[in-house]
Design a protein that fits this description.
The protein is an alpha/beta fold and 225 residues long. It is built from 6 helices and 10 strands. The strands form 3 sheets. A 4-stranded mixed β-sheet has the order 4-5-7-6, covered by helices on one side. It is globular, with a radius of gyration of 19 Å. The protein binds zinc ion. The site of zinc ion has 3 residues, from loops.
């Protein structure tokens, strides 16, 4: 069972099941990894059931609240209104505070979500490439392949080969947040860890990075489609 571990100043362990099989474990800083792992293993079945219940609620919520003409969505930190149009060629464009979505079946919620996801992923890729091109010379490293992924638990990642992946949902956040994640992954090309040296590199590029890092943790559940 895969889970994301968040070690903080706390006295007990908290298990959290999120949609799509994501498990978050909040544990005291001093607790040993082995013990945490053991606790997760003992609760594996329970956590699986919790996750399934969450997924059911999400499905139900989507059924009760489909994306319709007039729904809202965050794009680059700004609330936009979704407008649905019937048309043969599926696509979405951002115009004057609106996300105009065209597709053959605008009454199909999964189809609408699919077109929005594709349109925003394309927008995210364009923006991420621009920002990587902007920051790579400043950080002093050239990444390998830069791609957009539908990642469930991560905003960005850097492989040992120097390839960078970014979560398409970053396009929902304010531009500074996307910049922070780009800088974060580029700095991993120097420091493949989260040591004080790594954070000093990040801070060098973005002195107020903590503001945007915090924005992500506060708003992560709103960046969702
Ligand atoms: Zn990192």
């Amino acid at each position: 069972m895969e889970y994301t571990l968040i070690q903080t100043v706390r006295s007990s362990v908290l298990f959290q099941a999120l949609p799509e099989g994501v498990i978050r474990v909040y544990a005291p800083k001093a607790m040993r990894l082995r013990d945490i792992d053991q606790m997760v293993r003992e609760r594996a079945e329970e956590l699986l059931r919790m996750g399934q219940a969450v997924d059911q609620r999400v499905q139900e919520d989507r059924r009760v609240h489909p994306v319709t003409d007039g729904s809202g969505i965050l794009i680059e930190g700004v609330p936009h209104v979704i407008r649905l149009f019937k048309g043969v060629n599926p696509g979405g464009e951002v115009v004057d505070g609106e996300l105009r979505v065209t597709l053959p079946h605008p009454d199909s919620d999964p189809a609408v979500r699919g077109v929005i996801r594709a349109a925003l992923s394309a927008r995210a890729l364009k923006r991420v490439r621009e920002r990587v091109d902007h920051y790579a010379p400043r950080v002093g490293r050239t990444p390998g392949r830069v791609a957009i992924r539908d990642q469930k638990t991560r905003w960005g990642s850097c492989s040992s080969k120097g390839n960078l992946n970014f979560n398409w949902k970053l396009i929902m956040a304010p531009p500074q947040v996307l910049d922070y994640v780009v800088i974060h992954e580029l700095c991993h090309l120097w420091e493949f860890n989260h040591s004080p040296r790594f954070w000093a590199l990040v801070e060098n590029q973005m002195p107020d990075y903590e503001v945007w890092k915090k924005w992500l943790s506060v708003h992560r559940d709103e960046m969702y489609l």
